[in-house]
Every structure is written in C-alpha cells, then in structure tokens.
C-alpha cells in the first residue's frame, strides 16, 4: 500500500459559496457522477455544512434527491414543512418538491447526498 491509496476527505472538499442561494460557504466533493446514458445514481456528493451555513431552498425535476445525515444536526425544509434532522436520518426529497437544509447548531453537519433520475415514474 502506498500513501496514494488513502486520501482524507478533508483534502478533497472544496468550498461552495451560497449553494442553491444558501447562507455562507459549505464544503463539498462529488464522490461519483454517472456517465452520460448509464444507469444508476446521477451523482453522490459529500457535503459539510459548517455552523450557520445552509443549502438554500430549491427544486429539482423528475428526480429524487436523498440526504443522509452522517453527523451533526440542523433544520430541514421540505415541501412546506420544517423539521429537525440529525445523525442517522434519511430524508427523501420528492421529484419536483422544494427542499433545503440549515445548520443551526454549533458543530459541522456532514451529509451524503445522492440523486436518481426517475425516468419511468415522473410523479413518484
């Protein structure tokens, strides 16, 4: 094994200012992006929201975006409702729905995000 076989996530994360119109600068890294025409997830991202930052409220088209909170906590907005989320929570954001996330805590919020296109089921 060489030192190049292991990369710490902190070295991969890059600043993303005002993500979807959100507050401050989050950190993100696209772990996976689906090749054009291939099947499977559209992308898999790792995101870190420092205290006081957010992913702004936004909508997608005919796809389902899922958030998995790895650590930390915050306030999730989804389709007109606000609720607290924390480590271990899985939040499925429906096609055409509006969603966003605010880290209102004093610790970082680590989030795994993946999106899948729903070609055969646009109303799911």
How would you sum up this structure, described in words?
This protein is mainly beta and 124 residues long. The chain has a single domain, classed as Jelly Rolls (Sandwich), CATH 2.60.120. The protein is 3% helix and 52% strand. A hairpin with a 2-residue loop joins strand 6 and strand 7.
Question: What is the structural class?
Answer: mainly beta
The ordered string of helix (H) and strand (E) elements is: HEEEEEEEEEE
- Named CATH topology: Jelly Rolls
Which class in CATH terms? Mainly Beta
**What percent of the residues sit in helical stretches (DSSP H or I)?**
under 10%
Query: At CATH's second level, what is the architecture?
Result: Sandwich
> CATH superfamily name?
Jelly Rolls
- Unreliable parts: none
The counted number of beta strands is 10
Give me the side-by-side strand order of the main sheet: 1-2-3-10-5-8
Strand content: over 45%
Number of domains: 1
Write the layout of secondary structure elements.
Elements: H1 9-12, E1 14-17, E2 25-33, E3 43-49, E4 54-59, E5 63-71, E6 73-78, E7 81-86, E8 90-93, E9 98-102, E10 109-117
Features:
single chain, 124 residues, mainly beta, Jelly Rolls, 6-stranded antiparallel β-sheet, 4-stranded antiparallel β-sheet, 1 helix, 10 strands, 3% helix, 52% strand, globular
Give a brief description.
This protein has 124 residues and is mainly β. The protein contains one helix and ten strands, in the order αββββββββββ.
């Amino acid at each position: 094994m060489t030192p190049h076989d292991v990369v710490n996530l902190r070295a991969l994360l890059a600043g993303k200012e005002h993500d979807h119109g959100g507050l401050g600068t989050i950190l993100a890294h696209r772990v996976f992006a689906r090749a054009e025409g291939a099947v499977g997830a559209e992308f898999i991202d790792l995101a870190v929201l420092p205290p006081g930052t957010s992913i702004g409220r936004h909508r997608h088209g005919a796809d389902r975006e899922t958030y998995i909170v790895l650590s930390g906590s915050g306030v999730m907005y989804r389709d007109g409702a606000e609720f607290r989320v924390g480590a271990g929570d899985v939040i499925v954001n429906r096609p055409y729905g509006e969603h966003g996330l605010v880290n209102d805590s004093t610790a970082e919020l680590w989030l795994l995000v993946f999106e899948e296109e729903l070609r055969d089921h646009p109303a799911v």
